[in-house]
Amino acid sequence: MTWLIWRQHRMQVGVAFAILAALSILLWVTGLDMSHSLRGCKASPTCSGGDIMNKYRAVTTIVNITVAVPLLFGIFWGTSLMAREFETSTHVLAWTQSISRRQWLNRKLLALLAATVLCSAGLAAIVTWWWGQTSNSNRFDGARFQIEGVTPIAYSIFAVALAAAAGAILRRSLATLGVTIFGFAAMQVLMNSYLRSHLVHPLTALTPLGPDNDIPGAWIIGRELLINGRATKGIVQLPAQCAGTKSRPDMNGCLSESGYQFATKYLPSSRYWTLQYLESGIYLALAALLIATCVIVVRRRDA
Predict the structure, then answer these.
(1) What are phi and psi of 232, to 5 degrees?
(2) CA distance 122 to 152
(3) What number of H helices and E strands is found in the chain?
(4) Rounded to whole angstroms, how far apart are CA atoms 183 and 189?
């Protein structure tokens, strides 16, 4: 059975690990060079870290594109796990031999999930290391939260489990492909737009008006303008004492003295790993339910 699984999926696994190896070499070489350049830049008062990062814009784009890798695992690995077997009826041959449904299913799931964990963990590790060499220390920025740490591993397991469950139920590759893409994208949108900001209770900071009120390394969830401790509603009336100010800094200073301030809801950098583990736990719990569904459907449904 192990040999058969290898024969069926060796091309997919081989291509995935070859791409991972090539990407790891690229990120390792550019990461070391970038780190060396940035260290030298810090010693020069005229050097700009942004100019150095512009040299690696193409590599940064490649790194950000890895946000789609978990979905690719679901499409190319998860879809073939069940849907292709049932569509081509190759599962019947295995079941008529000395292999039971339970053995067939358990070995296929364990093999593909293990390969998924190894490949996604390797990718997450090299991407996390590469971003650590840059001058940008905010790990909540852009897609960084989704491509670093442990969340990419959980995303990948969820995508493969979703494809496996859909394949066991639908038994058609094209239909399984559609469900996998739609289901994974819907879950990502739901998490990014709503759920993630509610997983950990945010802190609130009161800051004066001005460009220097950002919190380094924090995820800014929301910001509200207050006047004398109360939220403003509608059009903000300019105080009379501030009408004569001409520059923006003077205006911000005058408004702050008049009782205006920002209430900023944020998550500090110290909550990064807490949020990573909570979000990964949700995806892994959903993956466990999908795998259980796949097992129940395969064991109870006729060949």
Answers:
(1) -80, 145
(2) 10
(3) 13, 4
(4) 10
Element (H, E) at 205: strand 203-207
The residue whose two tokens read 């259980």 is 292
The pLDDT, as a whole number, for residue 6 is 57
Q: Which amino acid is at 233?
A: K
260 Cβ contact partners less than 8 Å away, ≥ 6 residues apart = 209, 225, 226, 227
Is residue 12 predicted with pLDDT exceeding 80? no
Amino acid type, 256: S
Question: Does pLDDT of 135 surpass 70?
Answer: no
* Amino acid present at 223: R
Nearest to 84 by CA among 112, 124, 56: 112
Record the tokens describing residue 227, joined without a space. 């006047």
Span 192-210, average pLDDT: 86
Query: Per-residue pLDDT tens for 100-111?
Result: 667 777 778 888
Sign of torsion, CA 244 247 249 251? positive
Which sequence spans correspond to the domains of the chain?
2-199+272-300, 203-267
Task: Reply yes or no on whether the pLDDT at 43 is more than 70.
Answer: no
User: Model's pTM, two decimal places?
Assistant: 0.84
* Cα Rg of the chain (Å, integer): 25
Higher pLDDT, residue 3 or 157: 157
Question: 10 Å Cβ neighbour count for 131?
Answer: 19
